[in-house]
Amino acid sequence: MAAPHGPGDGLDPGPDDGLIHGRGQGRAGAPADGRAGAPDEGQPAPLAVPGRRGGPGPFVTFIEYERPDGLVARWDSRRHRKQSVHRVGVADHTWWAPSARGWWLAILFMVGSALFALGAVPGYAGLVGIRPDSVTFFVGSLFFTAAGFLQYRESVDAGVEDRPHGWGKVFVYRPRQIDWWACGIQLIGTLYFNVSTGYAMQQDLTAQLARQHVWRPDVVGSVCFLVASGLAWFEVCHGWLAWTPGSLSWWITALNLVGSVAFGVSAVAAFIVPSTGQLWHVELSNLGTFVGALCFLVGAFLLLPERTAGSEPSAPPPLRRGRGVPV
C-alpha cells in the first residue's frame, strides 16, 4: 500500500502499465476503432488536461492525464526510462540485444555482481591467494562503474526537460528527476568501490592506511548504494512503500535495496581494528558481500525481461505549452 504521493491527490497510483486508456475502448491500450492512442513517432505530445499525479516527496513519478482526444494516458517515470526506446511493431529481443544500451547495462551489472560474489565465496581466497582475490573484487568494481555510467546516461536521455542545465552529455543537472539522483549517486558509489578495491590489492598497507584508503571508501560507496537503491524503490512505489509483487520493477528495486543493506553490513563488519590491524568480523563481512552480490545479480538479470516487458511503448508525458516539463 503506497503512501501519499506528494504533489497530487494521495490516491493509489493505479496500474503501472504506462498504457493509454479511454472511455469506450474495446481493449486496454487502444480505442474501440483500433487507432493507436499515442502520437506518431517524432511528433510532440499534444496538450493535455492535467489529472492525477504523484510520487515520493517533491518528485513526480507518475502522471495520469486526459488527452485532447478523450483518452486517459498514464506516464510512469521508470517505465518511460526503461522502455522509451521501444516502438510498436519492432521486435526487441530480451536475452540477446547487443545493440541496446539497456542490455549491456544488465550484462555489466551481472558480471560485476558475479565477480563480487565469487570473491566472497569461502575458500576462494585460500585457493587462489589474497592478491588474485583482491583483483577479482577490483575487476568487478570496474564492471559496476561501466554499468553505473550507462545507467546514468539512460536517466539523462530519458529526461522530459528539453533544455537541461549543465554542460555536454555527462554533466547534466536534472534535480527534478528522482532517477537522476538515484543513478548519479550510485555511479559515485561505484567510483568509491574502485578506490577501495584498488588499494586493497596492495599487500603492504598499514592498518591506518587500510582504514583510510580501503575501509572508508568502502563505507562511502555502500552508503551511496543504499541511498540510490532507496530512491529507486521510492520511484517504483510512487511513494515510500508499496506491495506490487506482480511487477518486475518492484522485484528489481527490492532486491537492490536488500543487496545494498547487505553491502552496508559488510562494510561495517570490515572495520579494521586499530589495536590488531585485523578486520572486526571477517565472516560477517564476506557474508554481507556475498548476499549483496547475489541480490544485485538476480536484480540485474531481471533487467533483461523488464526492458522488453509489455507490447506498447510508454505513454509520453503531457508537456506545458512552450516548456519541456510535465504538466
Topology, pairings included?
Elements: E1 20-22, E2 49-54, E3 62-66, E4 71-76, H1 77-83, H2 101-120, H3 124-128, H4 130-157, E5 165-167, E6 171-173, H5 178-200, H6 207-237, H7 248-269, H8 282-308
Antiparallel strand pairs: 1-4, 2-3, 3-4, 5-6
Helix pairs in contact: 2-4, 2-8, 4-5, 5-6, 6-7, 7-8
How would you characterize this protein structure?
- By secondary structure, the protein is α+β, with helices and mostly antiparallel strands.
- It has two domains: 1-88 and 311-327, no CATH class; 101-308.
- Helices cover 50% and strands 8% of the residues.
- It contains eight helices and six strands.
- The protein has helices spanning 77-83, 101-120, 124-128, 130-157, 178-200, 207-237, 248-269, 282-308, and strands at residues 20-22, 49-54, 62-66, 71-76, 165-167, 171-173.
- The chain has a four-stranded antiparallel sheet. It has a two-stranded antiparallel ribbon with strand order 5-6.
- Helix 2 packs antiparallel against helix 4 (130-157), helix 4 (130-157) packs antiparallel against helix 5 and helix 6 (207-237) packs antiparallel against helix 7.
- The longest helix is centred in the last third of the chain and has 31 residues, at 207-237.
- It is elongated and about 70 Å long.
- The two termini are 26 Å apart.
